[in-house]
Design brief:
Blueprint: E1 3-5, H1 7-20, H2 25-40, H3 51-60, E2 70-74, E3 78-82, H4 88-106, E4 108-116, H5 126-130, E5 135-141, E6 163-167, E7 174-178, H6 185-194, E8 203-204, E9 210-211, H7 215-218, E10 224-225, H8 230-252, E11 265-272, H9 280-295, H10 311-323, E12 325-327, H11 331-342
Parallel strand pairs: 3-4
Antiparallel strand pairs: 1-12, 2-3, 4-11, 5-6, 5-11, 6-7, 8-9, 8-10
């Protein structure tokens, strides 16, 4: 059964658990906010589902709850950080705020980060910057692991390597969060645990045969996730995955060529300010025209009215802030157990 909870209570619960585990107050608050935002938007494999592994990483020292990133290089518009395995959501929030301020003056700002903690749902960062009239682009990879083969191959080389982007249109805005593989590691693990298969081939088994069976990913020898585009156009997704590798590990200066030091995301946070390009008014007019063109486009026979990327997530967020956050049935038992262990009360369902 799906249980619903007040988003404010979920945030307070997660914040208190992170504080109990030794995370600094400001970091605990941001991480809790970002994880709950993922669930509000409907990305329930990348919301509070990550709370238990984050707590485990804090306990083992794989994730650090105290400290600041090391600044490796700096110009007026670009910084490069060693994230020192600090919480990914907090690092992205800090980086996006710095890049936003730089963009307001110079038109763009970018922060490249190596060795960051897991950052959760990329879409969770977009609205905050888009509401400032700016454009946020976020790229992520993890050089310590691999799950996707290059096009035509059968051995894992890179990760799903998501790209996220958000900007305003005068209406609800556009938010996109797209992995460069058809599915993610987390969704594959969930389907395996549920005993369900994908609706179409989304993986290759170890021999390179397309399959809908998530167990192929965990077999020995292991299969791989198919690039975005699948068997028909996966060369495009694989190429984009390589682009993300260059923009994350490549720019940050630490990647797959280096000895693995355990989990450590590689990130690029890029903010553009339209006011410093063709002008904020021109940007708003163009993006609103395009939004109107999408909404006014006749749907295919029997299809629904067209929507912009992110509109469904933002509508779900508004509804869940009013009617409660629906957590995947697998998540509340895990959270309750963590709360009992720490002496922190788990919220009562609505």
């Amino acid at each position: 059964m799906t249980e619903r909870f007040r988003d404010t209570e979920l945030r307070a619960f997660a914040r208190d658990l992170f504080r109990h585990a030794g995370m600094e107050e400001d970091k605990a608050a941001v991480v809790a906010e970002v994880l709950v935002e993922g669930d509000l938007l409907g990305h329930d494999t990348h919301g509070l589902a990550h709370l238990p592994p984050y707590l485990d990483a804090l306990a083992s020292g794989e994730l650090r709850g105290v400290g600041e990133p090391e600044r490796l290089s700096e110009t007026p518009v670009v910084q490069t950080w060693n994230g020192r395995k600090l919480p990914g959501p907090w690092l992205v929030r800090q980086a996006s705020d710095w890049a936003s301020a730089a963009a307001a003056t110079f038109g763009l700002g970018a922060v490249s980060i190596q060795r960051a903690g897991h950052i959760g749902c990329l879409a969770a960062y977009l609205q905050r910057i888009a509401e400032r009239g700016q454009v946020l682009l976020l790229f992520s990879s993890d050089p310590s692991t691999a799950s996707v083969a290059p096009w035509g191959g059968t051995q894992r080389v890179f990760t799903p390597n998501p790209i996220a982007a958000g900007w305003g249109t005068g209406g609800s805005g556009v938010m996109m969060d797209i992995s460069m593989s058809i599915t993610t590691n987390a969704m594959t693990a969930r389907r395996r645990a549920e005993g369900s298969r994908f609706p179409a081939p989304t993986l290759l088994d170890a021999a390179g045969t397309p399959t809908d069976d998530p167990n192929a990913f965990f077999s020995e020898p292991a299969g791989t996730l198919l690039p975005l585009g699948g068997m028909q156009a996966g060369h495009k997704g694989a190429a984009l995955g390589l682009l993300v590798e260059a923009l994350t590990s490549g720019l940050s200066g630490y990647g797959r060529k280096d000895p693995s030091a355990g989990w450590g995301a590689a990130l690029l946070v890029l903010v553009l300010d339209p006011a410093r390009f063709g002008g904020a008014a021109a940007f708003a007019a163009e993006t609103q025209w395009m939004a109107d063109a999408v909404h006014g486009n006749p749907p295919v026979r029997g299809g629904d009215a067209l929507r912009l990327p992110g509109e469904r997530g933002l509508a779900r967020k508004a509804a869940q802030r009013f009617g409660g956050v629906a957590l995947h049935p697998s998540i509340p038992p895990l959270l309750r157990a963590r709360g009992e262990r720490a002496g922190v009360d788990f919220p009562t369902p609505l």
